[in-house]
C-alpha cells in the first residue's frame, strides 16, 4: 500500500518551551488544515523543521516521539543551518528575487548556497528513510527547490509533486541568481510543478527553456527522457471556518466592541506579516495622502493595521519595522486629536477569533502588496462577509487579483490610485458592495482549500499514470 509524504520547511505545529518542558500545539494555518486530510491518514507523514532550535539529544528524542503520534517527522536544524539555509539563502536570495527586489534586499553568498544545498540533502535523507517505491511525495515552497531532483536521483520511479507558494519571477529577474541552473534542475525533478497563477507558469516555462537545454510544448517540459507538467493551482482557504466564525458567541462579542469603538468612523483593515513585499509603507503613504488632500475625511476614517512579527532577526526586516513605527508615529502625530487616532497599529499576532471579528466589522479591507504569490488575507476577508457587504481593495500584484476581479483592483505603486480607491470604497453604495461581494464569496467558497488539495493530488496521479503508460509503449 503506497503512502503520501508531505515535505515543507516548517511542520504544521508550534513548539514552545516553558522551563524545561516543550509543548506542542497544532498550527491553525490554512495549509495545515487543507493537508490535514492527507497526512493524518494511514501511514502518511509530514516531514519538516519544528521551527525552533533543539540541541539536546534527549529533548530531540522526546519531541520526535510526541510528533510521531501526530504523523509528523521532525528535521532538526543547527543554528548555523537556520542562519545560512533559512535566513541567508531562502530569505535573502530567493524571497527578494522572486518578489522582484534586487540589489537592496538580495545578498549572494557562496556559504549560504552551500548550506541551502546541504539542508536540502538533509531533507532528502529524511524522505528516503521512510519513502518506498510507489509512494507519492508533495514538496512545498522555495526553501526546498533542490529536493525533488535529489529524491529523483535515488528513487527514479516515485511520484513527486512540487508547489511554489510565492511568485515565480520573470526570466530577467530569475537569471540574476548565480545558481539559477541548479535551482531549475532541482525543481524539474518533480513530475508536476504547481504555481498559484498562469503568469508564474509562463515565467517558469520561459526561464527553464532559456537557461537549461530542455524543450517545452504547451505546459510540458521535456528534460532527458522525462516530462514534467507545469500548471497553475490557485490556492483557496478554509472557507467554512471563516464564514462560520462570525456566528460564534466570542466573535459576536468582539464585533460589538469593535463597532462601538469605531462607531463614528469607517474602519479600514490591513493585516500582513512583516515583509517589504506586502507594501506596508506604500499603503501608509496612500492613507496619509488621503488625510492630506481630503481633510474632510479626518475623523471619518480609521485604519486598523496588524503587522505580524516575522523574520525580524534578518536586518532588512528589523529596519522595515523601524520605518513602519516611524511612519505611523508621524501620521498619528500630525493628524490625531482628542477624539480620533488615524491609525491603530499593532505589531503582534491575534487569535483567529479576533481576526474574524475584525474581518467582519471592517468596512474596507486594504490589501496592497507590491508582490504576493496569492494572498490569503483577501480571501479570508471575503469569506467573513456573510452579509455580502464590505469592500476589498486589492493589489493587481497579488495572485488573488486574478480571481477576485470584483475587488477594487489597484497598482500599489500608484499612491494616488490607492488613495482614490479608499474614497470609492468608503462611499460605495450598499447595493454595489453586495453585488461585488456576492460574486467573490461564491468563488472563495467553491475553490476552497479542500478543492485545491484534491485537484493537485488528482492531477499528480494522472500525470504519473500518463508517464508510466508512455514508458511501457
Ligand atoms: C505565503 C505567500 C500565499 C495574519 N495575521 C494573523 C494571522 N494571519 C494569517 C492570515 C493568513 C496568513 O497569516 C497570511 O497568509 P498570506 O497568504 O496573506 O501571506 P504569507 O504569509 O506571505 O503566505 C502568499 C501563501 O503563502 C499561501 O500559499 O498566499 O502569497 O507569501 O492566513 O489569516 N492569523 C492569526 N492571527 C493573526 O494576527 N491567527
Automatic annotation (TrEMBL):
Native source organism of the sequence: Mucilaginibacter xinganensis
This chain belongs to which protein, by name? Bifunctional alpha,alpha-trehalose-phosphate synthase (UDP-forming)/trehalose-phosphatase
Q: What is the lineage of its organism?
A: Bacteria, Pseudomonadati, Bacteroidota, Sphingobacteriia, Sphingobacteriales
**Of which family is this protein a member?**
Belongs to the glycosyltransferase 20 family.
Molecular function terms from GO: alpha,alpha-trehalose-phosphate synthase (UDP-forming) activity; trehalose-phosphatase activity
Query: What stretch of the whole protein does this chain cover?
Result: 1 to 473 of 730
Q: Name one GO cellular component term.
A: cytosol
- What range does the record give for the signal peptide? none
GO biological process assignments: trehalose biosynthetic process
Amino acid at each position: 500500500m503506497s503512502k503520501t509524504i508531505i515535505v515543507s520547511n516548517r511542520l504544521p505545529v508550534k513548539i514552545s518551551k516553558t522551563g524545561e518542558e516543550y509543548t506542542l500545539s497544532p498550527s491553525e494555518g490554512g495549509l495545515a488544515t487543507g493537508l490535514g486530510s492527507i497526512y493524518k491518514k494511514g501511514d502518511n507523514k509530514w516531514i519538516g523543521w519544528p521551527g525552533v532550535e533543539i540541541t539536546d539529544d534527549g529533548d530531540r528524542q522526546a519531541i520526535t516521539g510526541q510528533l510521531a503520534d501526530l504523523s509528523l517527522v521532525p528535521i532538526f536544524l543547527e543554528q548555523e543551518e537556520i542562519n545560512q539555509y533559512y535566513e541567508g539563502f531562502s530569505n535573502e536570495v530567493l524571497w527578494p528575487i522572486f518578489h522582484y527586489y534586487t540589489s537592496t534586499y538580495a545578498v549572494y553568498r557562496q556559504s549560504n548556497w552551500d548550506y541551502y544545498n546541504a539542508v536540502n540533502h538533509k531533507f532528502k535523507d529524511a524522505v528516503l528513510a521512510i519513502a518506498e517505491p510507489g509512494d507519492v511525495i508533495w514538496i512545498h515552497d522555495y526553501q526546498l527547490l533542490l529536493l525533488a531532483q535529489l529524491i529523483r536521483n535515488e528513487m527514479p520511479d516515485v511520484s513527486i509533486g512540487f508547489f511554489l507558494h510565492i511568485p515565480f519571477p520573470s526570466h530577467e529577474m530569475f537569471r540574476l541568481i548565480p545558481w539559477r541552473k541548479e535551482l531549475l534542475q532541482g525543481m524539474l525533478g518533480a513530475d508536476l510543478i504547481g504555481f498559484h497563477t498562469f503568469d508564474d507558469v509562463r515565467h517558469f516555462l520561459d526561464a527553464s527553456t532559456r537557461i537549461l537545454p530542455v524543450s517545452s510544448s504547451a505546459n510540458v517540459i521535456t528534460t532527458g527522457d522525462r516530462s514534467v507538467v507545469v500548471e497553475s493551482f490557485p490556492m483557496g482557504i478554509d472557507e467554512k471556518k471563516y464564514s462560520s466564525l462570525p456566528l460564534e458567541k466570542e466573535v459576536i462579542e468582539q464585533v460589538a466592541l469593535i463597532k462601538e469603538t469605531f462607531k463614528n468612523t469607517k474602519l479600514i483593515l490591513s493585516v500582513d506579516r512583516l515583509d517589504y513585499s506586502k507594501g506596508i509603507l506604500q499603503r501608509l503613504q496612500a492613507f496619509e495622502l488621503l488625510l492630506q488632500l481630503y481633510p474632510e475625511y479626518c475623523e471619518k476614517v480609521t485604519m486598523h493595521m496588524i503587522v505580524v512579527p516575522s523574520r525580524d532577526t534578518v536586518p532588512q526586516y528589523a529596519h522595515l519595522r523601524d520605518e513602519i513605527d516611524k511612519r505611523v508615529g508621524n501620521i498619528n502625530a500630525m493628524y490625531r486629536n482628542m477624539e480620533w487616532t488615524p491609525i491603530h497599529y499593532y505589531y503582534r499576532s491575534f487569535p483567529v477569533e479576533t481576526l474574524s471579528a475584525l474581518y467582519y466589522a471592517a468596512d474596507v479591507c486594504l490589501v496592497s502588496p507590491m508582490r504576493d504569490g496569492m494572498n490569503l488575507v483577501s480571501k479570508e476577508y471575503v469569506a467573513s462577509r456573510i452579509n455580502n457587504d464590505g469592500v476589498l481593495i486589492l493589489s493587481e500584484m497579488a495572485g488573488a487579483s486574478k480571481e477576485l476581479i470584483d475587488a477594487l483592483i489597484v497598482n500599489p505603486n500608484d499612491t494616488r490610485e490607492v488613495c482614490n480607491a479608499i474614497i470609492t470604497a468608503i462611499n460605495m453604495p450598499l447595493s454595489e458592495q453586495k453585488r461585488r461581494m456576492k460574486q467573490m464569496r461564491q468563488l472563495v467558497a467553491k475553490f476552497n482549500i479542500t478543492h485545491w488539495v484534491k485537484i493537485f493530488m488528482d492531477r499528480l496521479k494522472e500525470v504519473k499514470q500518463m508517464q508510466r503508460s508512455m514508458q511501457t509503449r
